[in-house]
Amino acid sequence: MDFNDASRTLPLHLPDWFDRIAAEYARMDAAYDAVAAHAGFTCSGCEDNCCRTRFRHHTLIEYAYLRQGLEGLAAGDRRRADADARRYQEALREAESQGASFRQWCPLNRDGRCILYAYRPMICRLHGLPHILHHPVRGLIRGTGCHVFEQAQRRVAPRPLDRSGIYQTLAGLEQTVRKATGFGAPVGMTIAEMILAMEGGIALGGRKRESIG
Ligand code: SF4
């Protein structure tokens, strides 16, 4: 089964999975808020908005949940998201073919705000804060915050966000979805690719397919 097949055959309403991913996202937001508050860090008004960073997202459950949000958009918003996603992908292909850096607004961002904020994937929720991860093979992994976080002067030493439990829970949920769908291949999609996957024509990792079906 390829991604287009998985996208077509995934039921649109998956209340059990969606309740679970929504609960996990709420835990992520709470964990983020606690670390950000401790450090006195806020993203609001950031000129170097991370919605201009090219992220790729790697779980089918996050794609399914974002698709649920896309389904609920008004027709005009959906058309604009589709058009912006096509422009984004064209610009990304061009940049990647030239080895150039890429900074472009995510097709779901309008005037600095996410139009599917409740459905945004994990990395949109966790980016920016320093973090640690207890990896089963590689041991303790540390990551820095975004450059705005790192450059700020603060009175207390920031503590890192521990992503270990977050990743474990999401991986467990992903396994459940993979088992139910029979879809085993890796996923690595930008938000633009997720939007375009709803229409067909995007394969894993955003490579355009020659034919669909
Ligand atoms: S999905 Fe939303 S939060 Fe994530 S990059 Fe796009 S606009 Fe920003």
What would you note in describing this structure?
- The protein is mainly α.
- The protein has helices spanning 3-9, 15-39, 60-71, 75-98, 122-126, 147-151, 164-181, 191-197; strands at 109-110, 113-114, 131-135, 139-143, 161-162.
- It has a domain at 3-33 and 40-125 and 182-206.
- It has eight helices and five strands.
- Strands 4-3-5 form a three-stranded mixed β-sheet. Strands 1-2 form a two-stranded antiparallel ribbon.
- The longest helix has 25 residues, at 15-39.
- The protein is globular, with a radius of gyration of 18 Å.
- The relative contact order is 0.22.
- The structure holds iron/sulfur cluster.
- Iron/sulfur cluster (SF4) is lined by residues 51, 106, 108-109, 114, 116, 120, 124, 191.
